[in-house]
Design goal:
Blueprint (H helix, E strand, L loop, with lengths): L3 E3 L5 H7 L13 E8 L1 H28 L12 H9 L7 E6 L8 E6 L6 H14 L11 H14 L8 H4 L3 E6 L4 H16 L3 E6 L4 E3 L3 E3 L8 E5 L2 H7 L1 H13 L3 E3 L4 H5 L3 H8 L9 E2 L8 E5 L9 E3 L5 E4 L9 E5 L11 E9 L1 E10 L8 E7 L1
Parallel strand pairs: 2-18, 5-6, 5-9, 9-10
Antiparallel strand pairs: 1-2, 3-4, 3-16, 7-8, 11-15, 12-13, 12-15, 13-14, 16-17, 17-18
Helix pairs in contact: 2-11, 3-9, 5-7
């Protein structure tokens, strides 16, 4: 049973000052819950250990995909494969991702649901909002599994230093230009990107923001901002699979940039391997005895409750829970219906006394460094709430 603690919610004006403008859902309810999930230190440490172990497993699985050319199985568009392999070979820097995990509360084992490695959101809520809730309620702000802000700064520094100590070469950070971009008309994506921009500024980098349609691209040079300044790094919060299928000409240009250009792209193209839910089949084949993995396949599992989801998708769209006889018992619609199906053994999410389900999100930035929760129905979709936590 999930135990929660009621807290005084943050004022809407403060949330907007922080940058969280999507604080009220379409039904008028608050997106940020007025409770905190109560965790023990052991439970927080278990989430930390799980995400660190899973990341290493993902790296091994991605290498298997590349070695055996399993791109079609994972739904990777063929025009993206050269960039995937180039970015993997060059060891381009993965800035951050988010593991979605079931269990971990009240003795229930932790299980991987998926890894949002390419375009993860929820970082502003996890890094800043839940910390502000503790502060506003007079609580000890250190009683959270949350070091995202500092770890992001360090990972921006590692763009320059590599895996060496991130406090080296401080004079070089200001020489590096980072351009941040998101699509127009999606406030959550834009504010997520602007938060990353703010952290990069705190880290000492010259940076700028423009919408995706405002960025300029040159085959042999790289990516430019609206003023025509060449970026050393370009962070785009837009899925690689959508670029490859919707922007064919841009994909060719980015492929050329990856080979001859000056701009490095964040998150790198190989993160689509992690993002594809198909890689969880490869994970299960490589690590069948892992306590963190659920049986996953491209065909329906036999005589077991399972979840049918799309190989690419966001926010629980186009997801179906099937009983052991293969009959749907819960499902959501969405725009990803034409994508390939993946079947994963069903694992019940922890519930609170009111019967609401909780899914943990653990951010990975060099290492596991931040935890938050989504709360909602059996399938957590775009109506789910964000719930912070307290370690006590």
């Amino acid at each position: 049973m999930v135990e929660t603690l009621a807290v005084k919610p943050l004022e809407k004006s403060l949330l907007e000052e922080i940058g969280l403008t999507w604080h009220t859902d379409t039904d008028g309810s608050d997106y940020i819950a007025s409770e905190l999930v109560r965790l023990s230190e052991a439970e927080a440490e278990a989430y930390y250990a799980a995400a660190n172990t899973l990341y290493d497993m993902y790296v091994a699985a991605a290498q298997r995909v590349i070695d055996q050319q399993l791109y079609y199985e994972l739904g990777i568009p063929s025009n993206l494969v050269p960039m995937v392999e180039q970015s993997w070979e060059d060891d381009e820097w993965h800035l951050y991702g988010r593991f979605d995990l079931a269990g971990g509360i009240d003795g229930k084992p932790i299980k991987l649901i998926e890894f949002n490695a390419d375009t993860p959101t929820g970082i502003l809520e996890t890094s800043i909002v839940q910390w502000a809730i503790l502060r506003a309620n007079g609580m000890d702000q250190s009683r959270q599994f949350n070091n995202i802000h500092d770890m992001l700064k360090d990972n921006f520094h590692r763009l320059v230093t590599g895996p060496e100590a991130p406090n080296q070469f401080q004079e070089r950070y200001a020489e590096q230009k980072i351009l941040f971009s998101s699509a127009r008309g999606i406030p959550e994506d834009e504010r997520t990107v602007r938060y990353l921009q703010r952290v990069a500024q705190d880290a000492g980098f010259f940076n700028d923001f423009c919408y995706l349609d405002e960025a300029g691209f040159s085959n042999n040079e790289g990516v430019f901002n609206r003023e025509g300044q060449l970026a050393d790094y370009w962070f785009k919060l837009f899925p690689w699979e959508d670029i490859a299928t919707q922007e064919l000409e841009l994909t060719l240009i980015l492929d050329s940039i990856s080979k001859r250009g000056h701009t490095h792209i964040l998150n790198p193209a190989y993160t689509i391997l992690f993002q594809s839910k198909g890689i969880m089949k490869i994970l299960y084949e490589l690590f069948p005895d892992s306590p963190y993995l659920l049986n996953t396949a491209f065909t329906p599992l036999t005589n077991t409750p399972q979840v049918r989801k799309k190989i690419f998708g966001r926010e629980g769209a186009n997801t179906t829970i099937l009983n052991a006889a293969g009959k749907p018992i819960a499902q959501t619609d969405g725009p990803y219906g034409e994508n390939k199906d993946v079947y994963q053994a069903w694992y019940e999410l922890p519930k609170d006394a009111a019967g609401r389900y909780y899914q943990a999100g653990v951010f990975y930035i060099w290492e596991a460094c931040g935890l938050g929760f989504r709360r909602g129905g059996e399938i957590l979709d775009d109506t789910s709430k964000f719930v912070g936590h307290l370690v006590d």
